[in-house]
DNA sequence: TGTTATTTTGGAATCGATTCCAAAATTAAG
DNA sequence: CTTAATTTTGGAATCGATTCCAAAATAACA
């Protein structure tokens, strides 16, 4: 049904001016007389003319498009906010995003980059779906690139990552300032794992304890695997301690789910018998659990936005690592012993 | 650092042939002599030449790009598979996706469409994040459009939606064939709600019961609100019945979470005392709950793929509504009374 | 009013590919 | 060894915008 689209020539002819003038009107060039401007605009309106993006891009060498390469969104749906932040920021500046999920496949990743370069994207965002080190081919150096939720060993790109230490510290502080003294932590991976989350959060945990002159007790730190089942087991052993914790910091919301189950199986009430704090602010869990789970939120949306904004300030600044704070989302899973 | 990109002219000069010949090599035209072909290809290789997508699109009037307009992905993260299906299918055909989430804002939706038309997308996918009726402006008629997980009242587009009735039927059948006879259903909305899911699933439920000569018992059908809290309450009233159900069909996994909580609070074991089946196959819940939740999966990925495939078969066929079956994902929340 | 300075305009050249047509090269036929 | 038929090639025209430059129109000034 689509009636053939008009070109700038059609408009020029109809308005009885030159193509140059139409172009100037389109681009709000000041050097066009008000009367002709409105004449041209009238014609543009009347004919419902829309300039061809392709032609414009070819001539100006600007695609008004960014590439967004993501790895494995699917496995971590709560990270969609990453995409959302980037998309919204881009949209506000009249840019669109070419998005491809490379599914953690290095080859696909390279081909995605190629397709995007072919299309003259003005920049690339490479986003991991959880905080990790990544290694990117040389090809990524040929266009402004910013990393989200990840970094490379050589630090050649500007990157943004969540502040795991601060998050661990704040989560623990929250428990401490509510009057809890025996606070346990269930890590989502071993401290030697290649993922920075576990080690960072643990460090924050220790720092917060030290602030109030407490030592991290070995029996209170458990190593889980990020899933509910592992946390279930960890919680059981924690509560079997001679002097069990009154509060548990679970390093993922999924683990908090397991902890909830374990506590209930022991007929313990949350938060009256044991307080719990999670990590990720994964709506499906944190909001739906009973009682609703207090948790640390990952700054996904903020990092996505920031990445686009970096790209927009084109003249690539020296590669820096930006660290984003994780806010505490307070719900009902923490008992207030003192204020 | 990006060294200037070569043009087809550069290649032609270097290979000592005309631009036409280079173009023919690029497009695998048969009419080029093997010896010149390899000569040209060598130069292309050596200079790492990549044709400009913009120039090519302008000339051929083909953008190799589809638009994907989504509404409110954010609120329903498990629907990302919709995007994933579309993206993968597009990728396999050398196409890329321009994705924008219009956030349920009709104005933004229109502007997104405009931006996409400007860029000469070859088709548009409009995806709702849960099954619903939508209304789209006339502008959508100007380019091949296919709807995913939604439909318009006037049925002017080809659309794909999940088969709610089949899903409701299969979920209930599963419970029945395991030997359960008093099976309750907790709907995710009232039957009069504008969302087809509740009514469809309920109809399937009734059909399955009728197949084995059972009547739907009014006291066994509860109206929830899709969230855990409402299902918690519903479950309590179900179990307080003189003759409580031995199986509960929860129309969302989030509600199943509430049902789990309620049953545990009554010291009832799943699945030994009560069996539960969910809906959505939302990994965070279904896989992490204990015991893992049997549930109906929404065919998100399949619908996304299908949409792209429809678009690829360009000559738009008459608008049809395609209904996608929802598979049963069997886990451990159903007790087998008989086989 | 005649000059000069300034504002506004038209249109050719350009971006980098594809495509078409006529010319050149090659092959086949006589 | 011609001539005709066929294959291969070069390059101009084209897609639809922007941009630059010179020309035309207008304004300013004496």
Structure description:
The structure is a homodimer of 339-residue chains. The first copy, chain A, is an alpha/beta fold and 339 residues long. Chain A is 40% helix and 19% strand. The first copy, chain A, has 12 helices and 12 strands. Chain A has helices at 8-15, 19-26, 34-47, 53-60, 80-92, 106-118, 164-177, 196-211, 228-239, 253-265, 283-286, 300-312, and strands at residues 65-71, 96-101, 124-133, 145-151, 158-162, 183-187, 221-223, 247-250, 275-280, 294-297, 321-324, 328-329. In chain A, strands 2-1-3-4-5-11 form a 6-stranded parallel sheet, sandwiched between helices. In chain A, strands 7-6-8-9-10-12 form a 6-stranded mixed sheet, sandwiched between helices. In chain A, α5 (80-92) runs parallel beside α12, α7 (164-177) packs parallel to α8 and α9 crosses α10 (253-265). The first copy, chain A, starts with 7 loop residues before the first helix and ends in a 10-residue tail after the last strand. At the A-B interface, α4, α5, β2, α6 and α9 of A face α4, α5, β2, α6 and α9 of B. Chain A binds a DNA duplex (30 and 30 nucleotides) through residues 7-9, 12, 17-21, 23-24, 26-27, 31-33, 36, 51-61.
Search tags:
homodimer; 339 residues; alpha/beta; 6-stranded parallel sheet; 6-stranded mixed sheet; 12 strands; elongated; DNA-binding
Low-pLDDT runs of 5+ residues of chain A are none
Strand order of the largest sheet of chain A: 2-1-3-4-5-11
Order of helices and strands of chain A: HHHHEHEHEEEHEHEHEHEHEHEE
Q: Identify the quaternary structure here.
A: homodimer
| Biggest pleated sheet of chain A | 6 strands, parallel
Kindly estimate the percentage of residues of chain A that lie in beta strands according to DSSP.
15-25%
Residue share in helix of chain A: 40-55%
Radius of gyration of chain A (Å): 27 Å
């Amino acid at each position: 049904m689509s009636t053939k689209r008009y070109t700038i020539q059609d408009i020029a002819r109809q308005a009885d001016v030159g193509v140059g003038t139409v172009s100037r009107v389109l681009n709000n060039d000041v050097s066009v007389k008000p009367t002709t401007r409105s004449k041209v605009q009238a014609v543009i309106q009347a004919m419902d003319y829309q300039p061809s993006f392709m032609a414009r891009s070819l001539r100006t060498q600007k695609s008004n498009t960014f590439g967004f390469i993501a790895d494995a969104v699917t496995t971590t749906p709560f990270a969609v906010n990453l995409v959302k932040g980037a998309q919204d920021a881009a949209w506000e500046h009249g840019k669109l995003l070419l998005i491809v999920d490379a599914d953690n496949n290095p080859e696909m990743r390279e081909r995605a980059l190629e397709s995007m370069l072919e299309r003259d994207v003005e920049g690339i965002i490479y986003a991991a779906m959880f905080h990790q080190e990544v290694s990117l081919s040389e090809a990524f150096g040929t266009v402004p690139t910013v990393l989200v939720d990840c970094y490379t060993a050589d630090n050649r790109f500007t990157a943004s990552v969540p502040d795991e230490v601060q998050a661990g510290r704040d989560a623990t502080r929250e428990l401490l300032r509510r009057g809890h003294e025996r606070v346990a932590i269930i890590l989502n991976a071993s401290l030697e794992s290649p993922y920075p989350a576990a080690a960072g959060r643990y460090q924050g945990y220790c720092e917060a304890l030290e602030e109030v002159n407490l030592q991290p007790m070995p029996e209170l730190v458990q190593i889980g695997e990020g899933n509910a089942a592992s946390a279930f087991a960890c919680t059981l052993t924690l509560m079997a301690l001679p002097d069990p914790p009154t509060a548990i910091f679970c390093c993922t919301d999924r683990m908090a789910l397991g902890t909830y189950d374990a506590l209930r199986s022991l007929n313990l009430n949350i938060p009256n018998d044991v307080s719990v704090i999670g990590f990720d602010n994964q709506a499906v869990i944190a909001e739906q659990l009973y009682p609703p789970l207090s948790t640390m939120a990952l700054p996904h949306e903020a990092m996505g936005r920031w990445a686009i904004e970096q790209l927009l300030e084109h003249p690539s600044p020296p590669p820096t690592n930006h660290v984003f704070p994780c806010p505490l989302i307070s719900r009902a899973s923490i008992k207030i012993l003192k204020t």
